[in-house]
Amino acid sequence: MRWKVLDERTVYEGSWARLLLADIELPGGQRLEHCVIRLPRQSVATAVVDDHQRVLMLWRHRFITDRWGWELPAGWADAEEDLAAAGRREVEEETGWRPTTLIPLCSYSANVGISDARHHLFWAKG
User: Fold this and answer.
1) Which residues have a Cβ under 8 Å from the Cβ of 33 and sit 6 or more positions away?
2) DSSP letters of 14-72?
3) Alpha carbon of 45 to those of 3, 19, 114: distances in Å?
């Protein structure tokens, strides 16, 4: 059974994201207001793995969660940019390493309950 979107209104719109409130009707007839985050670009991440199965990662602080953590080199693909080219660009920008061939591993949506964000994961030999 599908949820019905009766209406959507934009609460915030910027160059990085658009936040909407959706008026939703559930299959049983109940109505609720639901937050929706729409992102204008697709995300790319690359797992660079060497011959010893070590993965190139970055140790970063993120203010949103106020935590430090390990991350794969990642970022957004520009509007008409090839996704593998975007993955190579992000690895070089963030680590200085220049991968040549990127192999697509998977494409996925991480937060489908609230966002239309699309993610693409690549593998590169380090």
Assistant:
1) 21, 22, 23, 24
2) -SS-EEEEEEEE-TTS-EEEEEEEE-SS-EEEEEEE-TTS-B--EEEEETTTTEEEEE-
3) 31, 24, 21
Residues 97 and 126: their CA atoms lie apart, in Å, by 9
- Please give the pLDDT value at position 100: 85
Q: Are 114 and 18 in contact (CB under 8 A)?
A: no
CA-CA-CA-CA torsion sign (62, 89, 48, 98): negative
Report which of 118, 96, 12 is spatially closest to residue 48, judged by C-alpha positions.
96
Measured distance CA(72)–CA(85) in Å, rounded: 16
Spatial distance between the Cα atoms of 93 and 40, rounded to a whole number of angstroms:
21
Q: Which residues of the chain have pLDDT under 70?
A: none
Phi-psi region of 95 (alpha: psi -120 to 50; beta: other; left: phi over 0): alpha
Give 61's strand partners: 68
